[in-house]
Write a structure and sequence with these properties.
- The protein is of the alpha/beta class.
- The chain has 3 domains: 100 residues, Helicase, Ruva Protein, domain 3 (Orthogonal Bundle), CATH 1.10.8.60; 172 residues, Rossmann fold (3-Layer(aba) Sandwich), CATH 3.40.50.300; 95 residues, Orthogonal Bundle (Arc Repressor Mutant, subunit A).
- 45% of the residues lie in helices and 11% in strands.
- It is built from 16 helices and 9 strands.
- The strands form 3 sheets. It has a 5-stranded parallel β-sheet with strand order 4-5-6-1-7, with helices on both faces. Strands 2-3 form a two-stranded antiparallel ribbon.
- Strand 5, helix 7 and strand 6 form a beta-alpha-beta unit.
- The longest helix is centred in the first third of the chain and has 17 residues.
- The radius of gyration is 23 Å and the shape is globular.
- The relative contact order is 0.13.
- About 5% of the residues have low confidence.
């Protein structure tokens, strides 16, 4: 534990009846330096990436597994460490048999939720290779591609890029990635998605890494580890962690969302520990199946503000899309017209972030009214959004 973390824990001494929480430690979209229970997977990935330590590019690979299995947690932290290594002077390896020096390839991590076009993909890859600022508008895809080609040409050992969240609703899939990266030299990739690659994708069987759901005991350890860093003292007991883990069924994202929701419930009631009723409230705030909060925070800010206002509406205000849109548009912080909010709500429903639940009947030929229901962890989203 570093000094800053020790200071934060001192700051969380119970001076009153309220629970003080370090939200970054409990957040399902924040990844810790040492992912719990995933050591064997890290070792397998390091075996796959081992050619990089000899100054060679590893073969293309794919990490796959269900939501909440820790794919992003492992790969993002691993690539962050490897990127730091490639920037250090010690990354230049002096061989014992020849004077020639071997340089470690560069490592870049990209989130396909935010890089869903060729322009964005090339921009983010170029940004990961350059210390200079890279424009995000005012230039075309061809301009960005040419600059990326030049940057790759300067990488003597090439680049290894991890592309996360491929194949989700808002992001592209492996076939698109292959087409976008095929013109580029000196580059290998590691794709991260929920399903294994098909036979048409050039990834060998030994370069495919499955991550399964967490076992209950491992998920309990994960929850207790995060809680010990995010809560003061013994705010969460083992029984509470077990209840969340058994309900989450191996999904760390949903488990952490429920834990953060439980903390929010405790704070709302002015408590200094998480009670059984808080845990049930946290669990109830996470719909299943539901959408990852990572997808929510990858949305444009105006859509996030619409969702933030939506979850504060009472049931009657969500009784129809039109009513919900009018009520949200009246919120001062939203600054959008009712028609724009209504359009956003329809778009969010198409991507599964909210759900339109039909109710009632209509005397005409149109559809019956649709109640608007969030399909994401509402309490956790509220706390993380407000904490920003």
């Amino acid at each position: 534990m570093d000094i800053d973390a020790r200071i934060r824990r001192r700051q969380r001494v119970q001076t009153d009846r309220r629970l003080i929480v370090d939200y970054d430690r409990l957040s399902p979209v924040a990844h810790v330096d040492d992912p719990v229970g995933r050591g064997p997977v890290v070792e397998r990935l390091l075996d796959h990436l081992d050619p990089a330590f000899r100054g060679e590019l590893p073969p293309n690979g794919c990490v796959y597994g269900p939501k909440g299995s820790g794919k992003s947690a492992v790969v993002s932290v691993l690539f962050d460490r490897l990127a730091s290594l490639s920037l250090q002077p010690g990354a230049v390896i002096h061989t014992a048999t020849r004077v020639q020096m071997t340089e470690v390839p560069s490592f870049v991590y990209i989130d396909a939720r935010k890089s869903s076009t060729r322009f964005a993909l090339y921009r983010d890859l170029l940004s990961g290779l350059s210390d200079d600022s890279v424009p995000d508008q005012g230039v075309g895809t061809d301009w960005m591609f040419e600059r990326l080609e030049r940057a790759l040409a300067r990488q003597s050992s090439g680049v290894v890029v991890a592309i996360d969240h491929l194949g989700e609703v808002e992001s592209e899939d492996l076939e698109w990635l292959l087409d976008a990266l095929s013109p580029l030299d000196k580059l290998s990739w590691l794709a991260i998605r929920r399903t294994p690659p098909g036979p048409s994708v050039p990834v060998e069987a030994d370069a495919q890494f499955e991550m399964k759901r967490y076992q209950d005991q491992v998920l309990i350890d994960l929850l207790m580890t995060r809680a010990n860093e995010g809560f003061p003292g013994e705010s969460l007991n083992h029984a509470g962690a077990r209840r969340i883990a058994e309900w989450a069924d191996g999904d760390a994202h949903d488990a952490l969302s429920a834990l953060l929701g439980a903390a929010e419930a405790a704070i709302s009631d002015g408590n200094n520990h998480v009670r059984e009723t808080d845990i049930e409230a946290g669990i109830d705030s996470v719909p299943r199946p539901g959408v990852s909060l990572g997808r929510i925070f990858a949305l444009p800010e105006n859509k996030q503000s619409v969702l933030r206002s939506l979850i504060d509406l009472d049931e009657s205000a969500r009784d129809s899309v039109t009513t919900a849109a009018s009520t949200i548009a009246a919120v001062e912080s939203v600054s959008l017209s009712p028609s724009t909010v209504k359009r956003f709500l329809y778009q969010l429903a198409e991507t599964g972030i909210i759900e339109r639940v039909p109710h009632g009947t209509t005397s005409g030929k149109g559809r019956p009214p649709s109640r608007v229901e969030p399909r994401f962890a509402t309490r956790a989203f509220r706390k993380l959004y407000d904490a920003r």
